[in-house]
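Technical note accompanying the year-one report. For the benefit of new consortium partners, we illustrate the data format agreed upon in the data management plan: each record pairs a sequence with a C-alpha cell string. No post-processing was applied to the example shown here.
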Amino acid sequence: MVENAIFTLKTQIMATLTLVIVPAKRLSDGTHKIRIRVAHNSETRFITTDIVVRENEFKNGKIVHRPDKDFLNTKLQQLYNLYFKRYMELDYPDSLTCTQLVKMITNPLNGEKHRKFEDIVDEYLSQIDEEERTKTYKLYRLATNKVMQFIGDKLLAVTGKPYDTLEEVIGISGTPGNGSLMEHITPIRMNQYISWLKKTKLSSTTINIYITLLKVIINYAIKMRYVTYDIDPFITARIPSAQKRETQITVEELKTIRDANLEHYNLNVTRDIFMLTYYLAGMNLVDILAYDFRTDEINYIRKKTKNTKEGDSLISFSIPEEAKPIIKKYMKKNTGKIIFGKYKNYTSCYNLLARKISQLGKVAGIRHKFTLYSARKSFVQHGYDLGIPLSTLEYCIGQSMKEDRPIFNYVTIMRKHADKAIREILDNLKNE
C-alpha cells in the first residue's frame, strides 16, 4: 500500500507524478527512501530518490518533525519539478509505456549511453502487441537479422567507447565481438548496407521494407534518447522503390468468391473474413476483431494509425446489409465481438489465412498474388472505377493515398458520403 502522497499533478494525457514512501519497501534499519510514483497508461513505476526518512517523518507528501525538513522538502520539490518539466516537454508522451516514460524523464539527454543495435531491437520487439507478433514480429526479425549479418562483414560501428579497440568491437581471432553501437550508424554505412543488400539479390520491395523497418528501430532509439545524431543516418540513403504489386481482383472474381460452393469449413471461414473485410470498406482484421458490433454503425480509429503522426482519424459509416449475415454468424451476443468459429484471436485467424487464402484465390482463377489485403485494395479500386472521389475512398479506409492526391482531398468527408460510396460499390456486386 502506498501512503503519504502529495505534489500530485495530472496532465491532459493522464500521467501522474506523486511523492510517496512505500511502507513495504524498508531499508535494513527500518527507514524508507522517498520515491516519485509515476502512473501512466494504467501502469505504475517508481523513481527512487536518495532522501531517507522514517515512516513517521513523512506525512502528506512532506517531511516533518526534522530540523532539516525545510531544506529536504525544497530539494524534493526541485527534483519533482525537474522530472515534471521534462515530462511536459516530451513529444507524444501518451505513446510511451510507463517504463519508457520513466527512462525518458530520468535520462533526458542520452537515455542509456552506448546501446548496441541488437539490444535496441530486442527492447523494441518486446513491446509489439502480442496479437500482431505472428506477422509483424517475424518481419522485424528478418529485417534486423539482415543488419546484424551485415555488421559481421561491414561493421557499422568503427570504434569508440566503451570499447577501446576495433578488435574488441568486431571480435578477436574469430570470436564474435560486442556488436554495433547505435551512435556509429552513419550515412556512409547506410549506403554500404543498402549496396550489400542489393548484392544479395533481394527484390527492391524487400529492400525497401527492410530499410523502412530499420528506420523504425533507429527512430525508436532516438525517441528514447538512447542515441542522438548530428546527421540523419538516412539523409543520403539511396533506397530502392518498392515494386507495386497487383493484388486487387476484379468485380467478377470477387463475385465468384462470394458465390462459390465451398465444401471445407476452413475455406468458408477464410471467405467470410475476406468478404467481411471488403463489405466493411477494407477494415483491417485487427480492427474487426476488436470492434463491438452490437450496433448498426461503424465508428473506429485504425489501430495501425492510433497514436501515430498520421493522427487518430475517426472512420464512421453504416454497416451495410451485406455484412450483417456474416456478423450475426460469428458475433458473441454478450460482448459484440466477432470470433470466427474455432479461430478465436488474431494469431489463429492470421495462420488460417496464411494457409488457405491462396486456395480461395484459385476458386476464382486468380493467378497473381492474392492476400487478405486484396479485399481492401479491391474495395478502393472498384470504387475508383465507379468514379468515386479518392478523397471519399481515403476516408472510408482511413488511409491517405499519397500518390496523385487531388486538391479536393482536403475537403471534409461526411459520413453520408461514405455510406453513399460503400452502397454504390456493393451494389456493383449485384448479379444482373
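Partners are asked to follow this layout when depositing records. The chain has three domains: 3-106, 117-223, 251-427.
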